[in-house]
Sequence to fold (481 residues):
Amino acid sequence: MPAQNPFCYNLGVAEGGYNFQLRDLPSVKSLLDDEALCKLADELGLTSADIKRSAEAVLNIFRGDRTDDGEPLSEPNLRELVVDAIAGSMRHMAMRKLQPVINATGIIVHTNLGRSPLGERLLDAVRPALMGYSNLEYELETGRRGKRGAEIERLLCALSGAEGALLVNNNSGAVFLILHTLCAGREVVISRGELVQIGGGFRIPEILAESGAILREVGTTNQTFLADYERVLNENTAAIMKAHQSNFEMVGFVAETTVEELEPLVSANQILLIEDIGAATLMPETEANKLDLPHPAPSLRAGADLVSFSADKVLGLTQGGIILGRRKLTERLRKSPLYRVLRPDKSLLSVIEAGLSWLAAGDADAIPVNALLRTEPDDLKNRAFVLARKLRKAGLSVEVIETEAEVGGGVAGRRVASYAVAVSAEGSSPEDTARALRQHRPAVLAIVREDRLLLDLRAVLPVQDGALLKAVLATARASDS
Fold:
């Protein structure tokens, strides 16, 4: 008896194997025409090629696990088992494919869920430029080769007050480009409290080492003062760098030195002052302050030579790394051979240009993340009561509760008032209900807290309310059956 493959057990093959005639196995062609499998493929958004891939894998497993000692199977029973196993394989395949989900977790910029939603309006705005050719690197006035991203750089400077701007394909790349181009072979001074690791294993010390810059740590984990920086500066110092603390915060006996405090020191020593904000918005500063969101303008005004942050966090657009600061430095970065590796493509440029244009026009809510952040709690409360009323009408036990949502996206500790619907499914634990919602199409990501399943509406797009209702009702019906 061959060793049992855990995958084949998951597909429904008995531990002891089955006894059947190999000729009774259904053909791949007949399985491709199977009505139940074709219907399931339509529901899951799969193709006939996906059915074929699952069918071939399942048939191979059944052939390998056939035994003369197992339970005898007739041809109809064998086919039924094979079809059920293929259906399980297809569901597993569909779960791994990139697909839309409903974010009821209460985390607005959710890294695992694609960070910022773009919305229909933004996609409609960029569709014409992406469907055909565009003037990506072409000046229509002169008929000559142009510079990609020129309008984006103008908008970035206008929205931030920076002299110069540059866009690359992500913020990790932005930090690496700055360090490699301006600091390689020389020391970069950074507080021990800012030697962070963020999601995906991005570590500031490792980025520094790979860039060719030399790390010089100062201060302690919880406290770093101006004198700590002063003591280590020498003729080989290229820059002082500040890095955001991303997904954590320190409270209590802590102290850090600000950009404003560091500026006289770097000016006197003719070195650079670099800040990786990580996440920042470009809506008006007054609005950013109301929402307690980082904005690059204060750091630039305080004397930072270069500031970088992500375009797909609280800015609310797609993946990109934004560099703002002195024009002389951004132009040096543009001329670096490494910039060619990191420069953005037309899809990234199209989305970011459209979003920045709306910000410049005062239409911040055209970017979904801004609309989600600025939604009034009373609006969420009303939506929660509407959802709860419809669920109660269907016989579910629900309750509307006041919660706190998270901004997310590397902005530690930023919370915003929200409302959630707590759902109790009879006969199912909150974990089981959450698992069933994840397997629905579209999948719903909920929270299990204090032995209750919560659907937080802060990050649920209003157009998804109907789909959320259907998903919960379908999951409840499946639980009852």
The chain has three domains: 6-96, 101-115+372-480, 119-364.
